[in-house]
Amino acid sequence: MLSRRLLRIKVIKALYAHFKSESELTTISEKNLTASIDRTYDLYHQMLWLASDVARYAENRIELARNKKLPTAEDLNPNTRFIDNAAVRQIEDSRKLTDYLTKKSLGWAKYPELIKNLYNDLEKSDFYQSYMAAPSTDYRKDVRLVEQFFTECVEDNPLVEEVVEEQSILWADDIDFSLIMVVRTLGDMRDGEKDIPLLPQYKNEDDRTFAQELFSRTVVNYADYLSYVEKFTQNWDIERIAFVDNLMMVAAMAELVSFPSIPVKVTLDEYIEIAKYYSTPGSSHFINGILDKITEALTAEGRIQKTGRGLM
To answer: Looking at domain 221-310, does it have CATH number 3.40.190.10?
Structure first.
């Protein structure tokens, strides 16, 4: 399922686009936020299918070699362990996955160079060569090979990033999150099951409403919360503070005040971590210091009320 951190990032990006558009209407921005979240879930399904397309590319290579005019003994008796990989076959036979891909018109058919590139990377890898040369295999070893394909060949692959962003601008920065979900799915797979255990889009109903509520609470209270930021940055040139830093601090305030079940420490830690990747160098330390002061002020005013596991 989609993590809360991803949902927070989606909200910050939606807030950025909304305020930069200078629109007073939130309807379109809220729809765009929902679409962006849904597209990440699409990418999770699409990424899973990569293993199948690479395996079928390998199978086609074997067939071409067999049909050569003068095939070698190796051509006629190839090692088919990868194309027969039980985990890959399970992915291919998953009705839930194939139905989802068909419904959303997802796939890699238009990108044969990517599939070729990934296969070549896989074939040259030490883990693949060890897998193919081992005396035998079993289901867990087959699953492990597919996991390594995603973590060693797909993750941080520039061509994958290029192709993914070409397919959807909403997929920018979503690859790592989708791969985490793919690896988790592979870990949940069991031998003999007809379908693969696809993760739900949301963990629960609270997660389903979290992003939209965080977005709306931030927009409605933006001016009020920004005044706190300005109060505790009096010694800073407010015009020089990165706009996205202000957005993250205002969103953090909205979360602190509006979500009583989320612990204060969780909220602060999340936005500080997000700042490390989505703002300027040093922003995380700056945001940490300002949010600490703001949290103290809001707590003293009684605006932060935590319940249950969210007690401070």
So the answer is: no
